[in-house]
Amino acid sequence: MLRVLALAFAAFSFASMNVVAQELRVYTRVFELDAKEDNQPIVRSQTVFHAGKVYDAIPAAGEVTILEPAHRRIWILNPNKGCIASVDFDELRHMLRTVEDRVAQYLPELERQTNGPLDHLESLRFQLRPSFEAEFDAGKNRLRLLSKCVSYEVDGQVCDRPDALEAYLTYADWTCQLNYVLHPQPLLPNVRLELNEQLRRHKLMPTRVTLRAKMERPLSLRAEHLLDWTLDSRDRQSIQKWESLLRDPKLQKVSLSEYQRIALGQKIAKSK
C-alpha cells in the first residue's frame, strides 16, 4: 500500500532517452478517500530525478529504491533493516508474467463455479487486459479513464519536455511493477500501465490522480504530486547519502525474496 499510486514494459531503448540532464523532484501524498478518520495522508514520498537515475524515498517505510534505466536495474535499500537487494528489468517482468499466467489459469476454474463471484471474475479479466473509455478535456488538462471495474481521473499539466515526461512515465511504469512484487496489492500493474500509456498520448504530467476500483475490498485513493524542476542542496545531500548506501559494506546484499522476508514479512503476514 505504501507505494500505491506513487505511480509497461518499455518498448524502447533507454539508451536513446535524453534524461541525463533532467532534474526533477516530485513530492507525493496519498490519501484514502473513504477513510472515516481525519483525512491525513496514508503515505508521503519524495522522488528525485538526477543524472539518469531516479531515487524514490518513503521515510515511513524506511525504504529507498533507485532506478537505473541505463543498467536495466532497480536497487531496493532498507538501512533500518540492514539490507539491500536488486532486481533487473527482465527478472521483474518474468515474475509478473508468472503471476499473470496463474491468474489466466485460474479464470476457467472460476467460470465453472456456477455460484462463483461474477464481479471477481470480471475484475480479474479486466486486470489482465484492461480496456478503458478515455475522455480528455484539453481545456482543463483532465484525463478520465472509465470502466465497470476501475476508473481514473487525472489532473495534470501538458509537459513541453518530452524527455522529462518519458523519464517520469518510465519510472512510473517500473515502479508500479516493482510495487506489485514487493507489496501486497489487489490490482495487477497492467491497469496502471494502461493509464501511463494514455498520459504519454496526451503528453500529460500528472499532478493529481484519483483511483476508484470496485473489488471485494473497494479502493478509493487519491495521489497528489507537487513538481519542482530544480533540486536544492537537501536533494543533493540525499542523493549522496543514497549513493553511499549502495556501497555501504554494512548492508547485507540479499535476494529479492529474502528482502521481502526480512523487511516486509510482518506486513505480508498481516495481509494474508
- Give the N-to-C terminal Cα separation: 14 Å
Measured on Cα atoms, how large is the radius of gyration? 19 Å
**Care to count the β-strands?**
12
- The whole-number mean of residue pLDDT values reads 87
Overall form: globular
Oligomer: single chain
- Provide the β-strand percentage band: 25-35%
Q: In this structure, how is the largest beta sheet organized?
A: 12 strands, mixed
- Return residue spans where pLDDT drops below 50 for at least 5 consecutive residues: 1-21, 266-272
Sheet with most strands: strand arrangement: 7-8-9-10-11-1-2-3-4-5-6-12
Q: Count every helix, treating DSSP H or I runs of 4 or more residues as helices.
A: 6
- Helix share, percent: 25-40%
Number of domains: 1
Give the topology string: H per helix, E per strand: EEEEEEHHEEEHHEEHEH
* Alpha-beta content class: alpha+beta
Could you characterize the architecture of this molecule?
The protein has 272 residues and is of the alpha+beta class. The protein has one domain (14-271). It has helices at 89-112, 118-128, 162-182, 190-202, 233-246, 256-271, and strands spanning 24-32, 43-50, 53-58, 63-68, 73-78, 83-88, 133-137, 142-146, 150-158, 204-213, 219-228, 252-253. The protein has a twelve-stranded mixed beta sheet with strand order 7-8-9-10-11-1-2-3-4-5-6-12, sandwiched between helices. It is globular, with a radius of gyration of 19 Å. The chain starts with 23 loop residues before the first strand and ends with a helix. Mean pLDDT is 87; it is low at 1-21 and 266-272.
